[in-house]
Amino acid sequence: MGSTKKPDKLHPYGYSSLRYVSSLVSGLGIFFFGFGLTVYHGIMGLLHPTAIAPLYWAFFVLGGSLLSEGGTLMVALGQIRKEARRQNVSIWNYVLRGQDPSVNVVLLEDIAAVLGVAIAATSMGLSTYYNSPLPDCIGSLCIGTLLGAVASFIIYTNTVALVGRSIPIALQQQMTQVLESDVLVRSVYDVKAIDMGGLNVRYKAEIDFDGRQLTRSYLDKQDLEMMLEESQNLKTIEDLEGFMSKHGENIVDLLGSEVDRIEASLRKKHPEVRHVDLEVL
Fold first, then answer.
1. Which residues touch 90 (CB under 8 Å, ≥6 apart)?
2. With a threshold of 0.70, does the pTM exceed it?
3. Nearest CA to 41 among 115, 107, 111, 123?
4. In terms of Cα–Cα distance, which of 42, 52, 46 is closest to 128?
5. Residues 6+ apart with CB under 8 A from 14
């Protein structure tokens, strides 16, 4: 699938959002073809009723469809239940957020198919029993409404995901706590965490570092007696500038290393974080 392609120069954050595009197209197809044609059939049947033909073979086809779609539904439901349990969320919240749009589409399509088969079998049975096309037409309208609702849900959830949706607040707070617990971090501001698809997260925050703690960390790695001797030999302003420039550059390099360390720590505790943007205040 295109969504599994690696990032490149044109798409530095990858192609994971493509899965939402394919699901959105699927939702549009269900809406225009499933909903549109089924409702059209029901309305035309009401306006221009025709005699009921024997429906015995139709019942056999419906029975086969029920077995096929029911089996697929159980597989999709099992997969979603497994992923929802892994992420510690309810099945409904998992489906609502569209964490895995491909599985969600299969689940919703199969639910609509199973319910549609039940509605079709009931309406056809009533039409056969009363020898009237009216129940069949009403059944078509009910199935069309069901398909329209499913299509609308798929379109809505995938559109929201494509626009850019934040991750659950609880998960975002857990990620922020990883940063706040670091000894060098004084506070964290302007946190933004976006689900880029399949719970691949882009995390952005502004970090206020503790300058004293950073300097102390730098000094712990230096030979303080040598630094003292070096400082005592300073005679001119040029000597002082050179001394400050050398150690100032080293501290800035250390800050960069500490940012990399904090990012690595965040990714280790939350592997779903694929991109981390930390800005130093």
1. 84
2. no
3. 123
4. 52
5. 5, 6, 7, 196, 200, 274
Contact 276, 13 (CB under 8 A): no
Single-letter amino acid, residue 97: R
Residue bearing tokens 């960069």: 256
Look at residue 57 and give its three-state secondary structure: helix
More confident residue, 259 or 11: 259
CB 256 within 8 A of CB 278: no
State which H helix or E strand residue 166 sits in.
strand 165-166
Structure tokens at 18: 């493509």
Main-chain phi, psi angles of 140, to 5 degrees: -60, -40
Q: In terms of DSSP bridges, do strands 185-195 and 165-166 run parallel, antiparallel, or are they unpaired?
A: antiparallel
CA pair distance 218, 207, nearest whole angstrom: 19
For residue range 191-227, list pLDDT tens digits in order: 988 887 666 788 999 999 988 888 888 888 888 888 8
CA 175 to chain centre: 16
* Residue 278 neighbours by CB distance under 10 Å: 18
Record the tokens describing residue 247, joined without a space.
Answer: 């150690």
Structural element, H or E, at residue 90 = none
pLDDT in tens, 110-157: 888 888 888 888 888 888 888 888 888 898 899 889 888 888 888 887
Cα distance between residue 258 and residue 33, in whole Å: 55
